[in-house]
Amino acid sequence: MDIIVLKPAATAKEIRHIVKKLDKKGFKVNISKGTERTVIGVLGDTSIITEDESNAFASLAGVETVHRITQPYKMASRNFKSSNTTFRVGKQTIGGKKIQVMAGPCAVESGPVLLNIAREVKKAGATFIRGGAFKPRTSPYSFQGLGEEGLKILAETREKTGLPVVTEIMDPRDIDVILKYADIIQIGARNMQNFRLLREVGLYDKPILLKRGLSATIKELLMAAEYIMAQGNQKVILCERGIRTFETATRNTLDLNAIPVLKKLSHLPVIVDPSHGAGTWGLVSPMSKAAVAAGADGLMIEVHTKPAEALSDGEQSLKPEKFKALMKELKAVARAVGRTI
Q: Which of 49, 117, 221, 305 is the most exposed, having the fewest neighbouring CB atoms within 10 Å of its CB?
């Protein structure tokens, strides 16, 4: 027993009674209220519930049906919620008909540089500004980001452009300062299985953009999302950003299969990061269009006015004029699959 579907006429008293019985057995619950049905998600090791106990719950007043979920991820599963999850971030809706585009430099370098990039990408149609204030780098000698100063620059850029901010968290100890400035908190690929960090961000009502790990399976990505959702935060965005394979022609292998697979298995919105997936700016445009055609709900694209001078990942960053041309092409692809951009 993992999901209890309630009757449309189930009363608040009946729901409290069901929750109390589950609590006595040591289970936590998540109550999801839809337009037609209310669903109680049962959190914990439900394998200990016998068939007789499951049948007893099914006979309680207010209960319509009881379902078992065979996947280890429950709340992220489409069995838990059949309709696509959508939520608002500022004036934008994540997971809706409109494809959201998050664009900007890999790392925040200075106020003037970021503001210039933000104005260019907004003019082209981007709906979010992205930029790292804390940067996880392979080498300890590479640029690590500006920290809180970078967050302040992002917030100032939001004030001047109206673009909501997407930025990465690396350490649970930074959660308070990140919450002050970010509209969406990004969990990077290297931290996808940092379970302490996942639990921490799950405690707050702030959208989380969860990137797939470099060598993570789709199941592992969904299990990471489950860690966040089990703490109460249901605003999770899954991000395919390329995985490590034997191929050396590109930085990573962008797994476009992941988009329809995730859409089938989960109700959570899915976006794609073609910049990290390909690792070179010349592949960003075709991979972006392919991602939209495959059903992505959004894109995360690195843009820089002077890629050759970028402090991080300049080789995969588009110049503003290239980004503008891409956005125009993406509109035609989006129309072809019944979406807007």
A: 305
Q: How far apart are CA 305 and CA 324, in angstroms?
A: 12
Alpha helices per DSSP H over the chain: 12-24, 51-58, 111-124, 148-161, 175-181, 195-201, 218-230, 258-265, 274-278, 281-293, 320-336
Could you say which of 3.30.70.141, 3.30.70.1140, 1.20.1250.20, 3.40.50.150 is the CATH number of the domain covering 3-67? Answer: 3.30.70.1140
DSSP of 280-297: SHHHHHHHHHHHHHTT-S
Confidence of residue 104 (pLDDT cuts 50, 70, 90): very high
Residues 6+ apart with CB under 8 A from 7: 62, 63, 64
pLDDT tens-place string over residues 268-310? 999 999 999 999 999 999 999 999 999 999 999 999 999 998 8
Task: Look at the block and give the residue holding tokens 């209890």.
Answer: 4
